[in-house]
Amino acid sequence: MNELNSDIIVIGGGIAGVSAAAELSSSASVRLIESENQPGFHATGRSAAYFAKAYGNEIVRSITAASEPFYRHPPNGFCDVDLIRPRDCVFVGRGDQRAALSMMADEISSLRWQSPDDVRAGIPIFKEGYLAGGLLDSTGGDLDVDAILQGYLRLFTRSSGVVETNTRVNAIHHHNGLWKVHSEGQVFTATIVVNAAGAWADGIAELAGLSGLNITPKRRTAILINAPGGADISQWPLAVDVNEQFYFKPDAGQLLISPANEDECAPCDAQADEMDIAIAIDRFMGACDVNVERINHRWAGLRSFAPDKNFVVGFDPRQESFYWLAGQGGYGVQSAPGLAQLVANQITGAELPDHCKKLSSYTSDLAPERLIGPQPHEY
């Protein structure tokens, strides 16, 4: 059986794996392995596609901020469209959520307070008396996920990177400093393996002889409905319940609604759950003067979390040529450029751009060993 050689194998063709492979390929030979017939089939292709610097914990927000310059000013030839299209985001709360709004305002000083009338001026479907107020973020926007993914693939292949689709990994072995990654009828070899397999990350580690890190896939459901009353909703902000009980936003002339659910799920091709759909409609109609009579489209995706909900980025201390890039939760697309730069820095020594230098301070917060515990000494 022929062995196909490279310096680095990246397993997983979502936005995390593709962006990392593109950055790594500038100074190493890289092979990207994806089990589906195209990159971005699972979580990436089902993303709500919004860039929000106010979304997530402090580390997530910093990595998102470090990703913004790339999205605002991508490399020449990366794409021919704007990767971020401006759209405000407003975090909304009821009277019983005032404390949550106050905590968020204290933590993120860039957010601007809005009265209920201010919120309803931008999103007129909110029920009279429902809102205690909102917090406005005017720095974000809709992400063109397909343009981002295809741009990174162009960068990758331009640097002689190789994409292997329809390639399901069924065994991984390490011997004499070399990894052998087996698929049906093929063997790929490299000195470093990057595990960017999303919901399947723990399974890939186990194939490599390592116990998983309890990376847990969680299903999130979304639906599309007609614009309420046929209104022009194109300029409406993204509306997010401050406790993440639901969110909705314009999407190509329709309204995307999600109950913001996080239901533990085995790695799979996720499908929308009828109970999640019912909850989404109930929460939306509880907040808005809209009667949902028809659903135009429904889908679900898997968002994968480490136990502490921080990203997992770094070499595994049990096998120091096995690298984790996992646990992106719902932040994978908006954080991809910053994380890809960090991966390249840690694996090939590529210098971090000035706007990404702060990311090196998070090394221990992101490192896999935080989830493994002390390792036995060798004597």
Write the layout of secondary structure elements.
Elements: E1 3-5, E2 8-11, H1 15-24, E3 30-33, E4 50-51, H2 58-72, E5 84-86, E6 89-93, H3 98-107, E7 112-114, H4 116-122, E8 133-137, E9 141-143, H5 145-158, E10 162-164, E11 171-175, E12 178-183, E13 186-190, E14 192-195, H6 201-207, E15 216-226, E16 238-241, E17 247-251, E18 254-258, E19 263-264, H7 274-287, E20 297-305, E21 312-316, E22 319-326, H8 332-348, H9 363-366
Parallel strand pairs: 1-13, 2-3, 2-14, 3-10, 6-16, 14-22
Antiparallel strand pairs: 4-9, 5-9, 6-8, 7-8, 11-12, 12-13, 15-18, 15-19, 15-20, 16-17, 17-18, 21-22
Helix pairs in contact: 1-5, 1-8, 2-8
- What structural category arises from helix and sheet content? alpha/beta
Number of strands: 22
Query: Mean of residue pLDDT?
Result: 95
| Helical fraction | 25-40%
CATH-derived topology of the largest domain: FAD/NAD(P)-binding domain
Instruction: Label the overall shape.
Output: elongated
Per DSSP, the total helix count is: 9
Radius of gyration: 21 Å
**In CATH, what is the homologous superfamily of the largest domain?**
FAD/NAD(P)-binding domain
How large a portion of the residues is in β-strands, by DSSP E? 25-35%
Number of domains as seen in the coordinates: 2
Contiguous low-pLDDT stretches (5 residues minimum) are none
CATH architecture of the largest domain, please? 3-Layer(bba) Sandwich
Note the main sheet. Answer: 9 strands, mixed
* CATH domain class of the largest domain: Alpha Beta
